[in-house]
Amino acid sequence: MNINWYPGHMKKTKELIREQLKLVDIVYELLDARIPISSRNPDVDQIIGDKPKVIILNKIDLADPRATAKWVEYFKRNSITVIPINTITGEGIRQLAEESERAIKDKMDALIKKGRRPRPARIMIVGIPNVGKSSLINKLAGRKSTQTGDRPGVTKSKQWIRLKGNMELLDTPGILWPKFEDEEVALNLAFSGAIKDEIMDTETLAYKLLEILWGNHKEKIVERYKLQDEYTTIIEIMDNIARNRGCILKGDEIDYSRISNIILDEFRSGRIGQISLEYP
């Protein structure tokens, strides 16, 4: 698939993160709980160095709970602080605040010993586009501080935001990286909506997603789209979904554009079910 996914603003965002890193005490790296490996920017660890970091698994309401539990165990086993959250219900938000306080307590105590007045803890949040950074910030702030949306690229520039609990947070635009070594990673990012649909072939993307879901989550597809389970090809499955949803053009032709958008949208919104695409 020909995906143009590294526009100029992402290079500027990477430079911005490097410049502002010296001002912060801790970094939040926000990942999509459905694809924790694919949504990890491999450049982040190299950029932030030894700065304290918390991995946040967002969208746990859309992911398979069993997979999320395994991912939490995986990160902890590798000595990485990890917090699963749901920015809609607020699940995990208090735990995240408590973990942040613990991570920077020594630094704040050192400032007090030097006779300096305590200052707000400074946090930087980084993540790929459409992973839910703005929704998390609004939850932490207890008010709508940033614009949110269900498409990548909503956050356009850096902004400092005062949070509850004497903390300040630097939001940054979503950042992808300049080269995907694995086609599966690129597809997972496209499935989740991290890459704008306008710059790719959504029909091929929906076909590939349906292929994966039919292989690993057949029962959810059968139930959601009222199908039988004896189909032999993916195009046959897609055709039947289209007919059940009334995606038909003149001459009894399948409207592949419309049904492709429906399949992608219903996966991303969780209407097909709680599905993870990656497991440790």
Q: Which band does the percent of strand residues land in? A: 5-15%
Oligomeric description of these chains: single chain
Strand order of the largest sheet: 3-2-1-4-6-5
Unreliable stretches covering 5 or more consecutive residues: 146-157
> What is the number of E strands?
8
CATH class of the largest domain: Alpha Beta
- What's the main sheet like? 6 strands, mixed
Q: At the third CATH level, what is the topology name of the largest domain? A: Rossmann fold
What is the alpha-carbon Rg in Å? 21 Å
Judged by helices, strands and strand pairing, the structural class is alpha/beta
Helix and strand succession? HEHEHEHEHEEHHHHEEH
- The average pLDDT value, as a whole number, equals 85
Number of domains: 2
CATH architecture of the largest domain: 3-Layer(aba) Sandwich
CATH superfamily of the largest domain: P-loop containing nucleotide triphosphate hydrolases
Total of DSSP H or I helical runs spanning 4+ residues: 10
Task: Please state the overall shape, judged from the principal axes of the Cα atoms.
Answer: elongated
Helical coverage, percent range: 40-55%
How far from one another are the termini?
26 Å
GO molecular function: GTP binding; GTPase activity
Family: Belongs to the TRAFAC class YlqF/YawG GTPase family. MTG1 subfamily.
Domain CP-type G: 13-178
Keywords: Cytoplasm, GTP-binding, Nucleotide-binding
